[in-house]
Amino acid sequence: MLSEHRPTRRNVLKAVGGISAGMALGGAGILAAASPAGAAEDGSGLRIVQHNEEDPRMWYYKFATDAIGWEPAVNVLLPDDYHTSGLTYPVLYLFHGGGSDQDFRSWDQLPEGGIRAWTAGKPLIVVMPDGGHAGWYSNPVSSNVGPRNWETFHIDQLIPWVEANFRTYAEQDGRAVGGFSMGGFGALKYAAKYPGHFASVSAHSGPPSLRRDFGAVTHWANVTSAALDLAGGTIYGEPWDEARVSADNPMEHIESYRGKRIFLVAGDSPSPLDPFSMINEPEVLAGQREFRAALGGADIPHEGYEESGGHWVRPQRAIDDINGIVARLRRA
Asked: What fold characterizes domain 3-328?
């Protein structure tokens, strides 16, 4: 824990957002000006409508897709030597948290340099897509604003598009998935639901249980998605679609994590001055403890950390995680 550089409530929630999606702070500036591009059809179901490839490392794309009723975007962060090495690289799919201003840019807007600084010199491509303000990395049970099928977009469209357009390993040992808060849940969910896709999974203050405490996280997913994304629609339905909750619940799929690298971190001392952390992080921490106990009971190796403070990304743990991802995945 870097206590002398501890993120403030303002810069952390503005940068990444928390499970308290409906309470997040105001918007952030655009990363890079996008320029129009022609259609790019490659079988993924995605069509590029804007792009910017002027930055040597951070390339930006916006897509039209039938899976999402608006045009989601993605940042693709390339290794320093991508343009000259000719190498093939492993990929980290990295997801943002929930909040009214959270999107594909969030990991690039963190303190202490963010994802660019943390991956400098690393042989790793990082793909950071939109996931909705409260999309919960799911296809919702209902939507009053058109399609918001984030799971379809990420798994069935984005991964094939990345592997068709960048030098990546199109195999389990070439892919990792991680995220913060809502994005940490999404990473844990995808790793279990699609066990052949990812060799490493990371959750930074991400909740792994949909059913503990009378389904607190499931209720929160419904409430925030109805308010921020779906105009009254919900992720899991009211009453819940129990089969869908079980399919998405990491705690109900412990065996799916066997053989993967697993990295978990949560805060154990949120400040009373930060109501967001006081609400969110105790639930996250309790869920991660339950999850770690289940992994341990099944003799599944994992890394689990409890750090002082509340609901935010911890730079040193993020760096440790990236180093572990590079060590686990197939080498460039």
From this structure: Rossmann fold (3.40.50)
pLDDT digits (tens, 9 = 90+) for 115-164: 999 999 999 999 999 999 999 999 999 999 999 999 999 999 999 999 99
Cα 96 from Cα 193, distance rounded (Å): 19
- Report the C-alpha gap between 146 and 149 in whole angstroms: 9
Alpha-carbon 165 to chain mean position: 21
Contact 328, 261 (CB under 8 A): yes
What pLDDT score was predicted for residue 41?
56
Say yes or no to pLDDT of 30 above 60: no
- CA dist., res. 251 & res. 215, Å (int): 12
Q: What is the pLDDT of residue 53?
A: 97
pTM: 0.89
Q: Determine the residue type at 99.
A: G
Q: Where are the domains of the chain?
A: 3-328
Distance CA 92, CA 123 (A): 11
| Residue position matching structure tokens 């809502």 | 182
Residue type, 240: W
Q: Which helix (H) or strand (E) holds 191?
A: helix 182-193
| 297, two tokens | 């009971």
Q: In 3-state terms, what secondary structure has residue 286? A: helix
What are the DSSP E strand ranges found in 198-319? 200-204, 261-267, 303-307
| Secondary structure (3-state) at 8 | coil
Contact (CB, 8 A) for 235 and 217: no
Structural element, H or E, at residue 62: strand 58-64
Q: Is 141 exposed, middle or buried (0-12, 13-18, 19+ CB in 10 A)?
A: middle
Write out the DSSP string of 110-157. Answer: -STTHHHHHHTT-S-EEEEE--TTT-TTS--S--SSS-B-HHIIIIII
Q: CA 170 from chain center: how many Å? A: 20
Q: What is the tens place of the pLDDT at every residue in 126-136?
A: 999 999 999 99
Which token pair is 111? Answer: 């303190």
